[in-house]
Predict the structure.
Amino acid sequence: MLKGDGTPVGAVLGSGEDTISHSLTLVQRLDALLLQGNSSDVSLRVETPNADEVKVIQAHSLVLSLQSPVFEETLTGRNSSTIILKESSDCAAVFDKFIRYLYCGEISLRLDQAKPLHKLAAKYQVMGLQQGITQYMTQNLARDSASGHVAGWYEYAVLTGDATLRDSCLQFMAWNLSSLLQSGEWGTISSDLLMSLLQRSDLILQSEMELFAALEAWIIQNDPDGLTAENALRAIRYAMMPPRELFRLQTQSTVLAKYQESVRDLLYMSYQFHSASPLHMAKYFDVNCSLFMPRNYLSPVWGAPWVINNPTRDDRSTSFQTQLGPSGHDSSKRVTWNALFSPRWLPLSMRSMYTETGAMQPTRVEGGRPRIIITPATSSADFAGVNFQKTVIVMGLQQGKTVVKHVYNFHQSTEENGDFLSEADLYRKTSDYLMDSSLHLHIVVKPLYQTLITTKN
């Protein structure tokens, strides 16, 4: 193979054939053709509403038609050498970048240019560019920006029907909610996005109180209609707050004071939840709802961080304690958990042969996959009616920023999940799942009262 300037860099050997490539030279010549306007047969006049500024680009109908079916149709039916294009101001500002992509097949962009370029790619049906910018946006959700961009990209994805971008943005916000709550973008999110987040059980945040404080700030800033405020306040899981915090909210929150009647039943049920045993309460009340389901709280009450240095080296173990359940009746009861991490865990299908020989479980084997098993140190009669869901949150680096890379839910072992760290490649020092050669985890234990909760929300 040859570089664009003709210097050899190697050959592609196949069935007796070599390849000579001057593609770089071709791209450079097409770039120059656009810049100089040589042999141009069409003028693109880009106009914006209510603006005097007009951008004129000398182009070539053959190139435009090859790259865009919309341009092909427009140019086929034209009766003038000038095509007038109406674009929004943000799209007009990057229109020359868009046209250059049609000539060269490459583009450079900043965060603030991604959305208008995506708009242009969608409008003119340049599918390769549209998919490429969607991928760029999903890979740059963690990047710092002055006013935030993830919520804005989510709203745009909903508007345009880009399901891939929409789901990526929503998951990123749910898993990194504290960052969103502390950003300038939080106060500007729509009520629809607000409700989408509030209704999720997989939110990762310090506590339910953190979420209420952020919601209170949003309501004060946006002054929504009464129904919107009431629906949002009813999505808060008050039963996940200790009674002392509930009392403080009722005496100090101006928002709760204004809308207390709309959440009075939820507060009443929460106080009852904390005062009586869950088993006793279930005899009299139907409380099968999300109010009694914990989210992924990072508070020490519900789990612990775990940093595993050189995770491929050998098995590791750790211990931590959590509260038995979110009910105040269980607030003084603690469960001690033992966690075992193995970088090469024996697959379930092969365990029986090892068990028969008396080998301990789990067994490390070459080619095994990483696994975590979390078990209580002791059994107790208090566990009756309580089902413990374990969640392992895996942190990683993205755009130089620590973010949640993945979340795994299981009951006994991550083997139940099936894909635990399947994409991590822990043997590669540059893996996005490693920070300073260490695996950064946070284990959350979510107690669910099975007598109360029989369906997932």
About this structure: Residues 260-275 form the longest helix (16 residues). Residues 1-13, 351-360 have pLDDT under 50 and may be disordered. The CA atoms of residues 92 and 308 lie 50 Å apart. DSSP finds 18 helices and 13 strands in the chain.
